[in-house]
């Protein structure tokens, strides 16, 4: 018997979809893993592009000090191209954590007891 607490911890603390894979809901687990990886990649790409653009247009040739870094990071985190995928990833992560626990109770993939 698979423990719901372990599934919750895998999906909540490690990565979305791992709890579903642990509970043998392979299809949903793989889809959540792929979606989360896509969003993480998009966040990294958008973050790097926005960081570079913000620094080059506003501060270059000033050196990258702590103060400049703080201003640039705040601008990046507030930009919709970063914020929207970040919120989507947070929502997907939350869904995966809740679903990893609820799957058996709501009629999803059943495991023999």
Q: Which helices and strands appear, and what pairs or packs with what?
A:
Blueprint: H1 4-14, H2 18-22, H3 26-59, H4 66-78, H5 80-102
Strand-residue proportion: under 5%
Inertia-based shape: elongated
Q: What's the alpha carbon Rg, rounded to whole Å?
A: 19 Å
The residue ranges in which pLDDT falls below 50 over 5 or more consecutive positions are none
Helix content: over 70%
How many domain modules? 1
Q: Mean pLDDT, nearest integer? A: 90
User: Termini distance?
Assistant: 6 Å
Helix-strand sequence: HHHHH
**Computed structural class:** mainly alpha
- Number of helical elements: 5
Q: How many individual β-strands? A: 0
Largest sheet: none
Give a written overview of the molecule:
This protein has 5 helices and no strands. It is mainly α and 113 residues long. It has one domain. The longest helix has 34 residues. The radius of gyration is 19 Å and the shape is elongated. The model has no long low-confidence stretch (mean pLDDT 90).
């Amino acid at each position: 018997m698979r423990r719901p607490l372990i599934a919750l911890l895998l999906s909540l603390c490690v990565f979305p979809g791992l709890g579903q894979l642990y509970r043998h809901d392979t299809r949903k687990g793989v889809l959540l893993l792929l979606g989360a990886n896509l969003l993480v990649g998009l966040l990294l790409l958008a973050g790097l592009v926005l960081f570079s653009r913000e620094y080059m247009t506003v501060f270059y040739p000033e050196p990258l000090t702590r103060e400049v870094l703080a201003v640039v990071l705040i601008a990046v985190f507030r930009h919709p191209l970063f914020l929207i995928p970040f919120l989507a990833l947070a929502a997907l992560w939350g869904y995966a954590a809740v679903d990893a626990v609820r799957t058996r109770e709501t009629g999803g993939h059943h495991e023999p007891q």
